[in-house]
């Protein structure tokens, strides 16, 4: 009786995704507030609340503030969700639930666990983004089909943040206090300063480079350009190259760190 | 082909930096047998198991599992192994049944196949009535049974169990042993690590005693007792500090003095006890028993705590 053989590497990655989907199907309610409602709260509070005091002008591309905010909030939401999905769930897989150890006792390899995990984060970002776009459309702040491309760019920005963070999370041994500085000194300042709520040109010249290195600024530039359909080749190519490079390097490091930790 | 060893290791070594956890061991596990690794904590049992399970690369020596090299054919070998880790890694937020199905899918088995297999394994592990409960609230014994059931989802030829019953109550341990016997009868080859002597005597056809990364002895439980201990042991109990081994020194092959007892290793315990009485030795109580693997184990690995 021949036993089972190892699945094809791509099937293996999707089997990792499938197991996370089965978890999600049971537990999605607990994740709705942070992944979908938080960005909506921001959009409503800032876009409609604060935005009621802001005159459409050159800085907002002539659009009402909520419309101006919508594509940027899509990117900011993706990056925030990426942060949540790439920290404690990763640590848990190694340390608390230990599910990664169970997976790698099967034909699945540590590298496939890493890439499967990143694929799952990608799906989560796409899914949350779609819900956010639907909410935005219902609130009347979506100007056209360009928002679909905004969603793609937002997810790319999310992955550019998620991949290096997953690589970092795979090296954490403690109880996860190492993630606190990530949220306090990276995620929060990035959300505030990377051009989501106002153009980066309004920042003091000294602070602007900080915004430029964040994946969110590049994602925001792309998402707005797509939503308002003023895409120009070189800026788009440059922003995308930066985000793809972060994603690629992060994914390579994640694979390396998963291999090191699971294959001792 | 069927007579080829399932696991063959020569000079197998595992180093973590300077520390040599496994210091060059030779093992051969044949199809259909139950093979045990016995040893104190830190003896290198788990490191050996992880190398055999193809999740931990070896630092030296040769290793072949199911006729293949773990370094090059890890996924192919793991497809035919079942692994019960020392520490459960069930998905606590899924149901009992989902744990089996999800795990089966990792082997590339079809959804239909894992659905049927899960039902069969739930029966085997006596968990059918908890099938749709979450794993989290299950007792330790139930989780252990589920972990064993999960390890069988791919019908493995070789089952690796790392301390399968540590931390379980006697009822749970006996139920687990019963399940493992059944697997053995079905022809599954078992490799077990344990530091419970009764478990080793119950389960293993052949075992090695490991100590400090090396193999200290190898054989069947009966052979080991025969080789490293005497047939019987006479235990003479005294109030602490009042035992004097001098008068019984020559009554057995070996005498061991413990804080409250003198152990006389002898072929005939009753005769040694009678001789002790005639020499005026008056213990508080005495006991004649057969030698066990525990005597072998303590002789080979010492009574000092290692961790």
TrEMBL record, chain A:
Subcellular location: Cell membrane; Membrane
Domain of life: Bacteria
This protein's UniProt keywords: Antibiotic resistance, Cell membrane, Membrane, Transmembrane, Transmembrane helix, Transport
Domain ABC transmembrane type-2: 30-261
Coiled coil stretches, renumbered: none
Transmembrane spans: 30-50, 62-79, 118-141, 147-170, 182-200, 236-255
UniProt membrane topology term: Multi-pass membrane protein
Record has Repeat as a keyword: no
Protein family according to the UniProt entry: Belongs to the ABC-2 integral membrane protein family.
The name this protein goes by in its record: Transport permease protein
Protein species of origin: Kibdelosporangium persicum
Organismal lineage: Bacteria, Bacillati, Actinomycetota, Actinomycetes, Pseudonocardiales
TrEMBL record, chain B:
Protein name: ATPase component of ABC-type multidrug transport system
Primary site of residence: membrane
Positions of the ABC transporter domain: 7-237
Keyword line: Antibiotic resistance, ATP-binding, Nucleotide-binding, Transport
UniProt xrefs under InterPro entries: AAA+_ATPase, ABC_transporter-like_ATP-bd, ABC_transporter-like_CS, ABC_transporter_ATP-binding, P-loop_NTPase
Pfam families found in the cross-reference section: ABC_tran
Membrane topology, from the record: Peripheral membrane protein
Classification via PROSITE patterns: ABC_TRANSPORTER_1, ABC_TRANSPORTER_2
